[in-house]
Every structure is written in C-alpha cells, then in structure tokens.
Amino acid sequence: MTSQQDDSLNFIASCPRGLADLLGLELKSLGVEDARERGTGVTFTGTVEQAYRACLWSRTANRVFLVLAQYDAPDTDAFYAGARRVDWKAHIAPGTTLACDFSGQHPAITHTQFGAQRLKDAIVDSLREWAGFRPDVQRERPGVRVHAHAQDARITLSLDLSGESLHRRGYRTQQGEAPLKENVAAGMLLRAGWPALAQNGAPLFDPMCGSGTLVIEAAMIAAGIAPGLGRDYFGFLDWKGHDCGLWQRLVAEAEQRRAQAPPPGTSLRGIDRDAAAIHAAVTNARRAAVADWVQFSMGVLADAAPPPGERAGLVVTNPPYGVRLANETEARATHRELGAILRERFGGWQAAVLTGSPEMGLELGIRARRTHVLWNGAIECRLLRLDVQPDSFREIGRKRPGLVPDAALAATPGARMFANRLAKNFKRLNSWAEREQVFAYRLYDADMPEYALAIDRYRILGEGSFEDWLYVQEYEAPSSIDPEAVRRRRS
Fold first, then answer.
1. Residue 432 phi/psi, 5° resolution?
2. What are 44-78's pLDDT values in tens digits?
3. Which of 97, 165, 309, 425 gives 138 a disulfide partner, CB atoms 3.0 to 4.6 angstroms apart?
4. Nearest CA-CA partner of 93 in 238, 195, 201
C-alpha cells in the first residue's frame, strides 16, 4: 500500500474519561483542524503524519485508531459480512501477526470475546480467499491490531495504530501498589497549568510520590520530551501502509528536542516513606532520561517542606483514596495532614490534589479554585486545584446542612410512588450523564399528572467538590382545582 500521508483519513483518539478536552487541544497543537470531542476521546480527520505525531506526542491519549469502515450490522452474520468486505490485503502483509478486539453494546453480540472471534474469522477468511495466506494470531504486541466498536447496530472497524495503550511510555518497569497511569498524571499536570509554570522555572514537589510518575511526567513536559519517544512498539510498525521514512523523520525531530533541559533552576522533587517506591522512582527516572533533573528521597508527609529560600511553585500529589492502599479513616487523616502542611508551609504555592471522593477534599481545609472530574482507572476522582492563600482556607470537613424530610409525609403511598419514579429516572439517566459528562439535565417533568413538577438536577462546583442540587418548579394548577388540594399535594 502506498503512503497515505497526503490523503484525508478518519481517526479516533481515545483517552481516560475527563481528559477529552485536553486531548483535543493537543491534537490541534499538532495541526489537526477539526478535532471533535466526545466522552472518552476525540474524532478527527487528518493525515497519517498527524496520527503518527499523536502517537508520539500526545500526553493524554490511550490509543489512536484509523477508521477503516462503518456499517450497520443488526446481527452476527451482518457483522461478519461487513468485516469481510474490507480489503485486508491492503493492510496486512504475509507473515504479519494479528489480534482483534471488540467493544461497545450490540443487540446480538453480547460477549466481547465472541465479537473479537467473529472479527478474526472474517479477516482470516478474507485474506485466505483473496491473498492466499492466513495470519497467525498473537495477543500481545501483534503486528496489526484490529478493533471493532459497536454503538447499538452501528459498527466501526479500525486499525489500532498505537498497538497498546499510549500511557505505557516505556520507562516504568517498577511501580507502587496503586500506580497512577502516566497519561492521567500528565492530565493532572496540564490541568494544573504546569507547562506555563515550568517555562518560568517554578519548582514542583510531590510529598507522596510513590514510584515517581508525577515528577517524571513533569520533567518530561518541562524538557519537551515526547512521551512516546521511549516506546519500542507501536501498532503501525508492521502495518502494510506504514510510511517508515516519515516515521523516522518524526522520531529524529523528537530526538533533537530531547536534548533540551528544563529551564535553569527548575526543582523537581518527590519524597515517599517507602524505600522500595523511591528505588523504583529513581530507576524509572533513569529510564525516562530525566534522572539529572529530578530528585527523589525518603521522607514522611509530616516532614514535607520547601527548601529555604525556594520560590513558590506547584505541589502535586495523588494521596490514598481509602479504596486500595488505606481504609477511609486513614485516608481522611492523610488528607487532613496534607491540608495542614500546605497551609502552614506552602503559603503562596499552588496545589493540585487528586482525591477519590468529594468528601475527602473537604478534609484539606482549603477551598478549591477549580475542580475537575477525572477517572483514574475505574475510580471516579476529583482533581482539586488550590491556591494556598489565607483567603482560601475554610473550616475542615464542614458541609452545608441538607434538608430534613418530613417522615410522616415521606411514608404516605403517594410520596413512595413519587420517590420510586424519581429513583427510576435517576437510574436511567445518571449513567448517560456520567458517560457524556452532562452536568445539568431534567430528572422529572410531570411524569405523573398528580405531581405536576419539573425537577432539574445540577452538579455545581461547591466548596472543594461538586454538589448535587435539584431545582424544583411546579406547573400552575387550573383554577378549577381547589388551592388547598394543590398545597397538600405539593407538600
């Protein structure tokens, strides 16, 4: 297959939930003009060169897919037939290994393994008939990885140009018990404004650094190191359409920039109480080629402090959530201790704290300037961006009191019926709202004529976290309805 670098192709770049806007900005900085955000990624039209640059330079992406076909397939036979129609001999050469993946929700294909198997069958049968060879299947690091995604009966077939998740930079061979993915760490730093701070030589400090991911990613950003430069595997290297000369040129450009160092005086430090974690951090920094610019040392949170005379910078950290490494009580105590240390020793600094629940953020005693929803694996987290200033300090753990329901009214049959309808609507709409990152929607709109209300749910940034609010309106009753009956029903 000839080089497609001058052709306009369709791509999908995926990323952790909560980072699609950052991924879109990254793609635009690489020359993509029509990046379109969606819940867990960005779709765009571009060239092979732009896709290669995304694989090499995106700090937030998980994968980059080249779309090969889209079609409707209401059943498994239609899915197989559509996949078989693709000209696979243009993408897979003899001797190239193959892996297939399937994701999404399909009316007939309810198991991803079955969907992947049918996709593999279609590709193998097509190549055997039209090219006279059969590729071997190889699950880990195949020559070509093909992905099928179902959105109801609509199928999208793509080549996975990344091959494996782009968060695997190639430097982290050792990690702690609850590792933070590299692209999530980079997303935290981008959200916190680290690129601009780094350009000005601001220091960065992680008081619970674990295996050093945040500090290493910060060093790579400050030094302009392409996050994909340390990888030895991509999904396009054995693709028949691969432009080897183009890729070598892009790598050479990135290597030239790799010689750049952070601005003079930039301090990048991390401490941790676990000796094994510090050893892993030092090893990882060496593999990432940033060991000369970072410093890791043993230390407990209680000893965290900036060196005498150091200018204000950024404290960034990922403390225990109470999910994996510590129970909730210990996690709350850690957050409270972190907040006290920030208030007492890091005045004038900025801080970015990734916390596993909104309530944990209240223990810091610092009102967040901005809060972002960010997923660390399967855990929905809050990234709290703080200005460590006295006017941002708040009472620890205090939340505004909620409404107290009238128990007698709540027990009536009508109230229970109304509550059941609200719960049903919430269950149906909440997963959609979380997936699409919708923060305001109508939960109820006079579904039951007896309760002529419109109820809108809002997730509003409060004191350090998102809070749920309901805006309740009542439709005006006709004049023929007894006002006292309206009042009782409203109660």
1. -65, -45
2. 999 999 999 999 999 999 999 999 999 999 999 99
3. 97
4. 238
Q: Which residue has the tokens 């749920």?
A: 468
Q: State the Cα angle at 377 between 376 and 382, rounded to 5°.
A: 25
Q: Give the burial string for 421-438 (b: 16+ CB within 10 Å, else e).
A: ebeebeeebeeebeeebe
The per-residue pLDDT for range 126-171, each reduced to its tens digit, is: 999 999 999 999 999 999 999 999 999 999 999 999 999 999 999 9
Which secondary-structure segment (H or E) carries 473? strand 466-474
Instruction: Compare 419 and 167 and report the one with higher pLDDT.
Output: 167
Strand-pair category, 440-445 with 453-461: antiparallel
What is the amino acid identity at position 142? P
What is the reported pLDDT for 3?
38
Separation of alpha carbons 138 and 156, rounded Å: 22
CA neighbor of 64 nearest in space, from 91, 27, 18: 27
SS3 70: strand
The letter for the amino acid at 64 is V
Indicate the pTM of the whole model.
0.80
Contacts of 471 (CB under 8 A, 6+ apart): 455, 456, 458
At 463, the pLDDT band (50, 70, 90 cuts) reads low
**Structure token pair of residue 124:** 């193998």
C-alpha torsion sign, points 395, 399, 401, 407:
negative
d(Cα 147, Cα 157) in Å, to the nearest integer? 6
